[in-house]
Give the backbone structure.
Amino acid sequence: MSAHTAQVSLTPPPPVGGPIVNVSATLTAVQAEYKATYQLPFSTHRVFIDADNNPNTGYVTGPVWPGVGADFMLENGFLYRAIKNGADWTGMWQTVSLTPSPLVSSTNDQFVWRIPTSVFGALNGGTQKLAFQGGEPSTWAAAYVTIVQQ
Ligand SMILES: [Ca+2]
């Protein structure tokens, strides 16, 4: 037996690639699909959707993502619509009733949401800017994603 003592770390290493990885999305005239793998045990899994690609409308996700004005937000099994503009979370979101749930899978921590493109209505500008977030504590994907309707 060695006289030396070993230093044992009880802190797990950070997840490889970051806490939120494999981020992707597609938008067609019929359906929008959003995917991300959340590698930490977050209780909330969110996608902020700037449907009109206008940072001045919807929820301003800055200071991390000042370029995103999220008109919609997916959170776990629900879709919400921003009913005002700016960075004030209070009173920002109204539930959009969808059946079935927009969350179609969370197997192996890969979250897949699908929603009909029609829910974006007049806010569908054909280009969306997306910010993926987990919480709490608030943790953002390494980069936001821009998608163009196919
Ligand atoms: Ca917007």
Q: What stands out?
A: The chain has one domain: 20-148. Residues 20-148 form a domain with the Immunoglobulin-like fold (CATH 2.60.40).
